[in-house]
Amino acid sequence: MPSTSNVVSTFPIQILNLLCPVKCFEAIRQIRWPNGVECVKCGSLEIKKNGKHNSQPERQKYECTCGCHFDDLTGTIFEGRHQPITVWILAIYFMGLNVSNSQIAKELDLNISDAHNMATAIRESVLDKKPDPVLKNSVEADEVYIVAGHKGHPDAVEALGREGRRNRLRGAPGRGTLAKEKPPVLGIVERGGDVALFMLPNVQIETIEPILRSRIELGSLVYTDEYAIYGRLPAWGYQHKTVCHAKGEYARDEDGDGHFEVHVNTIEGFWSLLRSWLRPHRGISQENLPHYLGFFEFTHNVRRRGKRLLPALLGLLLSP
After folding, report:
1. What is the pTM of this model?
2. What's the CATH code of the domain at 244?
3. Into how many domains does the chain fold?
């Protein structure tokens, strides 16, 4: 997978230009094809223009020497949608500001179901396309539990043998699971680097081990709390140091240099950011939670906010 930095576009997008379809399509072309229009089938640069789209005159059509016919939106999540491209890009901009689906609907004068479907498509595409970096050097690992039921999924509620809830879902005490409607989220972060998030069915060895092996470089030093599963990290090929929260220990200076290097404060601080990000989106279902986690992981790793985040999101969504 490419690194996060490879999907960050530097194309200067002015927010007011998003209201102009011509400017929108110019931005899409420059972000999608910075070296010139490429065939979506064979990648050739031997392209000629082939008229305009019938209902969107700003949308250019092309023909390749291989016989392929395509346009500015072919092969993207915007293809075949009934909402104008200006609405889609503004929706992406608002999502980067962490605006809820209902508020996006109000701001863009959309039906709430249309806004929900657009936001879901965007989050799913981000989850599918985002880079999956391998973390190394000093890495922290921890888990948090997010209350998430089956809001908007009546079939899943019926399968549990209960009626739908009117009041706020309250998670079961103790370590959560998907079945308890309190799914665990595993977070791993490289100090000074990227973070990776995973919604898990439970916090057992067979669930956590494959993720750590695939996403942390062998030989890295992994910091965790005292949870017993992490005690197997040396057998999996990692260095391992722990702090014992049960004994009131949150940071330790192990080498006597005055720097308390043994801690998991980085990932625990990240949990505060994640909870704040999820708070406006009340009642996220466990079916949709991975989409929200993937979106926040990407926005956190590209280290962009506000209007500076929009080119990065567009660059990712327009990537092959």
Report:
1. 0.86
2. 3.30.420
3. 1
